[in-house]
Amino acid sequence: MEAASASRVSALVLDWYRRNARVFPWRMGPEETRVGLRQDPYLVWLSEIMLQQTTTAHAEPYFQRFRSRWPTVHALGRASWEDVSSAWAGLGYYSRARNLAACARIVSEVGGFPEDFHALRDLPGIGPYTAAAIAAIAFGRRVAPVDGNIERVVSRLAAIGGEPDGPGLRLVRRRVESAAQSLFDNLEEGAPSGDLAQGLMDLGARICSPRRPACSVCPVAAECVAQAQGRPEAYPVKAPRSLRPNRYGAAFVPVRPDGAVFVVRRPPKGLLGGMTMPLTTPWGDAPFFELPEGAPAAAWRRMGEVSHVFTHFALSLQVWRADVGQGDVLVEEGRWVPQEEAIVMLPSLGRKILRNALSADASPKARGSL
Ligand code: SF4
């Protein structure tokens, strides 16, 4: 983007942001940043990790709980994995929770978050976007964090198009990053780059929406090439959607006479690694059935099926339940827990399985027995 235009856009976005900033519990308002206050890097980092692939509305109560339970990165660094993973349950993508715990330990050991983009990037679970967001918002560094909102705004401002095949998309992405960076490079001396980052994010969320952007009230409309072309929705260029493959498996929930259910700790690596879950088979490309190791030979009843969508595939699991004796011993790494406790500690897939296994109204058609 040409420097004079980038400078005008940055100033217009900052001005708009001062009057229209969204309010979030992890955010410091523009009035405070204007007098030189900086946002706590711990809160910026925590919110950015939580907001990866989930909405602000969903992340907000988790953020509040984490902040009140672990008010500093040092407190989180001392927390046990059991506590962190059960507080994370429901946010999905458990590799993020593992990285969160590992990152908190490292940052606590070295006395705090580094300010430099590259040093931030070296921490577990922090990619280029998150490193740039922390560097800009918490430390005032002039680096552009390009999330989906900023990508959309900048692509439209500079009408950055191209071929949506593999190499073409990488080139388009580099041009968008370069245009976004030019907004930060041409920011007025002393202006808060964190406010520019958050202003661009808010502009994308509130005005420059994916469909039907509100160009008539947009503060940067006079600088926007896509708007002048009359086709803002042609940007950004998107990769063709690839279909998610299906995977299949089965889950087994033994239930004791006192109502306790049996759960296991999954292996540390892989999907849901280290998380507490009901017993499941491995997940394969076609429907199949086998009792997993540790499931007792019992009168198993099929209760139904649950579905769950991961980033790269959609999973369907048959759910089986058996009422077993009080003294039955299962696999060593598992344990019996009261149902109410299990519901809190399990990730969302585990909760779906448990609710299905314990439901009295599973569809009779879906039921069967072994
Ligand atoms: S003028 Fe329209 S397309 Fe351009 S940035 Fe503003 S809302 Fe987006």
Instruction: Describe the main β-sheet briefly.
Output: 5 strands, mixed
Order of helices and strands: HHHHHHHHHHHHHEEEEEEEHHE
Pick out the low-confidence regions: 361-368
Domain count: 2
Q: Regarding CATH, which class of the largest domain?
A: Mainly Alpha
Account of the protein in words:
With 370 residues, the protein is of the alpha+beta class. The chain folds into 2 domains: 3-234, Endonuclease III, domain 1 (Orthogonal Bundle); 246-369, Nucleoside Triphosphate Pyrophosphohydrolase (Alpha-Beta Complex), CATH 3.90.79. 44% of the residues lie in helices and 12% in strands. The protein has 15 helices and 8 strands. The strands form 2 sheets. Strands 4-1-6-5-8 form a 5-stranded mixed sheet, covered by helices on one side. Strand 5 (301-309) and strand 6 (314-323) form a beta hairpin. Helix 1 crosses helix 11 (166-185), helix 6 packs across helix 7 and helix 9 crosses helix 12. The longest helix is centred in the middle third of the chain and has 20 residues, at 166-185. Residues 361-368 have low confidence and may be disordered. Iron/sulfur cluster binds next to helix 10 and helix 13.
